Every structure is written in structure tokens, then in C-alpha cells.
Amino acid sequence: MRSFPSGQDREPRLTVVGIPGNRRLALFQDAVRAAGLAPAREVGWLDVLRGRAGFGAGETVRLDSPGEDAEVDRLLRGTDDQTRVEGTGRWYERFTAAARDLGRAVTAAGAELLDDPDELAVLFDKRLTHGVLDKAGVRVPLSPTSGGAAPAVSGWDDVRTLMAEAGLRRAFVKIAHGSSASGVLAVRTAGPGRVSAITSVELDGSGRLFNSLRVRRYTAEREVAAIIDTLAPDGLHIEQWVPKGTQEGRAADLRVVVVAGRATHAVVRTSASPMTNLHLGGARGDLDAVRSTIDAAGGSFSTVLTMCEAAAARFPATHCVGVDLLPAPNWRQYAVAEVNAFGDLLPGLTGLPEREAAGLDTYAAQLSALPRRADRTAARPRPCGGPA
Predict the structure, then answer these.
(1) Contact indicator for 185, 197 with CB cutoff of 8 Å
(2) How far apart are the C-alpha atoms of 356 and 257, rounded to whole Å?
(3) What is the pLDDT of residue 376?
(4) Do residues 345 and 22 touch, judged by C-beta distance below 8 A?
(5) Rounded CA separation 176/172 (Å)
(6) With contact defined as beta carbons under 8 Å apart, do 85 and 175 qualify?
(7) Tens of pLDDT along 88-124?
(8) The pTM is what?
């Protein structure tokens, strides 16, 4: 691990905003201790949302996910049931407002924030992220809802029309501000009335939507329409359902972590369903086998990493992101599906052996890269900014 300059006054005074007692903070504090640094001061998102958080001059402030806390979720989404899908539009408005207030407080205190609030506002809107990447020439799946000027989607009728106009018979319909595959539907159309969707969304008898750990298939258009009509008020993003490469007969994609501009970690995710998320039955695949497959196809794994770094470069004021990369069946072409602000929860995964973070987990890599971040700050391009 790259060492910090000697002398306690030159070491970073770390503060982390998150959920005290959460596994994310525990893993980060483990990395802090392993680096020989003083424990990070913990500030709870609950205190931030209630206006009780304060910061001091010289602190380096890292933001972590506000998830997995019932009271925080209630304040952000306005519901006491964490299994409900609805409410992400309200969550986004309240979270981004809180992040911007926090950013102003950190700046006023003379501290440094590792996660730019305006960039977070883009990262947590799939439509805006897609538009930023597309404009920068980063290959992304075709989307009729890309960018801030895209048409609003009011329900299933709009989805069906936009898919048809874009020539899409298969598409992912996603809530714009969702994560962990919440509210994602893999929709297939095959003519009038012939519609199916694969999703983890459970529709109950009263029309409420719940996240489920079981991927299910809906084959009646009225059911698909009911789900999408219920999700639409929170904002929807539509993108092409592109065929993916496979590993041992399972669909495969890659999560690549980029820290301070450098790809440091990569994990293969495989699944029998279109969603590769581990909590939905996905599994970690064999990265060495992927490297061999890419080499055999005449490609280069370094091209994969460069593409992920190009996507992350659109968010230069965010210290760490997780890039979801979709390989084509030939394993020579790729598209970026998403860029995740809190995409570093990959317990037990160590850095790529040929990179600076070899042997380090994702949290230790972020600490090790702080000096590199400081070196990059002066030459940093203008951040992508928030919604236009």
C-alpha cells in the first residue's frame, strides 16, 4: 500500500458519512486500521438529514451509501416498508438535496469532500448518466430516454411506443433512481398483446410493488403494464437489452471499480437470468477465464479497463465508482450499462495483480489512492454537472 508522508499532521484526518454499524463502514474502518491511520470519524446519514452533522477544517470526508437503515430510508422515501419499490423519485430529491447541503457545509468548514454532490445527482439518475457517457463517446446501449432532454415516460403506453420507435423488441425498463436491480424489468415484445417481462418485482393483489429475492416472469401484458404504470411516477429509463457474453452457459458481465481515475478491481458476475446481481441468484465468475476468452477472441483486457476508466473520467470529482460493463457475445465489444457511486461493496475481492491496488480490497485501494487524487486535482477537468 502506498504510504502517506510521515508525521501525523500530514496524514489525512478521515471522516466517513454512512450508516454506523453497517458492514460498509466496518470494512472501511478495517482498511483504515490496516493502513496505520487513526480511525475515521463516523457521521450518520440520520444526523445529516436532521441537520445535526458538523465538519472541521482539514478533514477528508468520504460519503458512503445511505442504504440498509430503516429510519434513513423512511426519511428519504417516505415509507416504513423497505421492501417496497415505489418512492425512489422522492428518495432522489431528498438525497441529492442533503448531499448538496452537506457539500456546502464541508466546504465552509475548510474540509475536502471526496464525492461531488453535483456528480452524485447525475450518477443517481440513469437517464443523465447515459446521456453524459453517450455525449463523451463512451459506448452505451441504445436508449430513447437518454439525457436530460429525453421525453418523460408516463406509463406502459409510452414505453411500448418508445420501444417501437427505437426499433427495440427487447429492452430493460429501469426506475431512473434505482439500485441493486430494484424495479428493473427485462421486457420482450413480439407483436400486439405478446409481451413478457423478467423481473424481481412482485406485484400484490392491491397493486403494490415489492422487491423480491426471486426472479419471476410475467407473461400477461396487463401485468407488465400495471407494474410499469405504478413505477412511472418515479421516473423510468429504457435501454436496449443487448445480448451478453457467457461463461459456462450463464450470462456474464463485469463490475470494474475505478479509483482516482485508475481501474483497480474487476469481478465477473454470471447468472441464468438477465439480472446478474448476486442477491438475485447471480454468482461470481472466473476472471482468469474471462481474460483467456478475451485473448482468444483477439481482444485485450487492458481495453476493458481503459473503457471503464473513460466512463469514470466523466465523473472526475468522485473518488471511486463502480462501472458495469456488458461484453458482447464475441467478447471483443463492450458497452457501459451503468456507473455506480457506491459500487465498491465487494468483500474479499483484491486488486488486479498488474495494477497499483494489487492485494488491496476496494476500501484500502481508495485510501492508497488519496495521494494520487491530490496530484490529479490541479489538472482535473470540469465536472459533468447536474441536470440541465
Answers:
(1) yes
(2) 13
(3) 58
(4) no
(5) 12
(6) yes
(7) 999 999 999 999 999 999 999 999 999 999 999 999 9
(8) 0.92
